[in-house]
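F.,

This is the one I mentioned.
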């Protein structure tokens, strides 16, 4: 078997990898496109935790390569430092320092000096947490209590109003967790994040592969009425399955206006099983509070026409690779993973247990509801229907 030639990761190739990753392509897809293994692509993304490093830009005040070549030519012509400086419109001290720090007049080489200066300029700005051990300690404590970075940042802002030295953005916390070169927050703390990921996943990413989720006569989310989008009217739901080991799964429903959550146990994810469970759940709600359902492109909803025929509830499907189009449901599923971890057997949970979990989420104040609970908001909607 011929050995695969060693691939040099040039700047343009690295940029292509980051562009593809940001667009939501999986490591496997990126690797296949450049004939490499996914572990090789992971090696390119992992050092910065899946967060694209900012593009380096030369300062306008720095000497350019062209100016350094003029300095080199001036040295060869035995011009004085003042004469070279006058030609370039630079201070003589600038030219003198440039020559002395790069081998002196006898060993000065323009290209070598330019590359050396570029390499030495790589001085990452010190992270705020690196200089505040009390703040990083508080953040570590809250992470161990399974607080999200956004919750921690919000709590710090309330706990220390006006004191910016004890406040930090949730993005800084995420970067300190994923970019281990910062040396601030321990890698082990990643296990307390709801996702438990080791690198940042692109916003547009999806685990769905090409060819999955082919739904007959699916109605696209683009045809969903505008009244559904603004969340002002209750009764529009988002749904999905969360899956565990041994082919176990649980169906989740979230009402868009109130963020009210409903969970129900499934024996399997066959379309007849899922649709039957959805029908049972739909009959428990007033018609005014169940007007539409938006679902992912999973094949478990191939029987959506049966559901619509028996309930008169229209089902809309998200675009491929677009989980954010069911934002409320995706966020709820992440919250549920604290109760129903990935890789565990979900069939061990009874419906009573699932009802208890849903109740806990529904009685938790939500920032997006101005800290009203989903239960209060949904019950107010129920009251108006009677």
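My design for it:
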């Amino acid at each position: 078997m011929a050995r695969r030639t060693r691939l040099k990761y040039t700047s343009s190739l690295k940029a292509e990898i980051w562009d593809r990753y940001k667009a939501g392509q999986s490591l496997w897809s990126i690797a296949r496109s450049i004939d490499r293994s996914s572990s090789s692509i992971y090696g390119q993304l992992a050092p910065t935790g899946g967060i694209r490093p900012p593009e380096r830009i030369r300062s306008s005040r720095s000497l350019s390569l062209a100016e350094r070549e003029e300095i080199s030519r001036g040295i060869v012509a035995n011009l004085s430092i003042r004469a070279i400086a006058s030609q370039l419109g630079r201070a003589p001290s600038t030219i003198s320092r440039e020559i002395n720090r790069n081998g002196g007049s006898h060993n000065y080489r323009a290209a070598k000096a330019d590359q050396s200066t570029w390499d030495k300029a790589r001085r990452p700005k010190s992270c705020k947490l690196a200089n505040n051990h009390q703040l990083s300690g508080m953040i570590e404590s809250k992470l161990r209590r399974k607080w999200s970075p956004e919750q921690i940042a919000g709590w710090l802002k309330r706990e220390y109003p006006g004191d910016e030295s004890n406040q930090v953005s949730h993005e800084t916390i995420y970067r300190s967790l994923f970019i281990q070169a910062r040396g601030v927050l321990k890698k082990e703390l990643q296990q307390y994040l709801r996702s438990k990921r080791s690198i940042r996943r692109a916003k547009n990413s999806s685990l769905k592969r090409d060819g999955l989720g082919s739904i007959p006569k699916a109605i696209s989310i683009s045809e969903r009425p505008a009244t559904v989008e603004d969340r002002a009217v209750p009764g529009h739901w988002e749904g999905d399955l969360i899956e565990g080991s041994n082919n176990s799964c649980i169906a989740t429903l979230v009402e868009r206006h109130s963020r009210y959550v409903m969970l129900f146990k499934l024996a399997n994810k066959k379309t007849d099983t899922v649709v039957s469970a959805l029908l049972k759940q739909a009959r428990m709600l007033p018609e005014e509070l169940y007007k539409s359902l938006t679902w992912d492109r999973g094949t478990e909803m191939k029987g959506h026409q049966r559901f619509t025929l028996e309930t008169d509830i229209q089902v809309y499907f998200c675009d491929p690779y677009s989980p954010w189009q069911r934002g409320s449901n995706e966020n709820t599923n992440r919250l549920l993973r604290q109760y129903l971890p990935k890789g565990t057997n979900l069939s061990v949970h009874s419906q009573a247990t699932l009802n208890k979990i849903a109740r806990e989420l529904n009685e938790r104040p939500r920032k997006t509801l101005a800290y009203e609970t989903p239960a209060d908001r949904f019950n107010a909607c129920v009251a108006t229907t009677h």
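The radius of gyration is 29 Å.

Talk soon.
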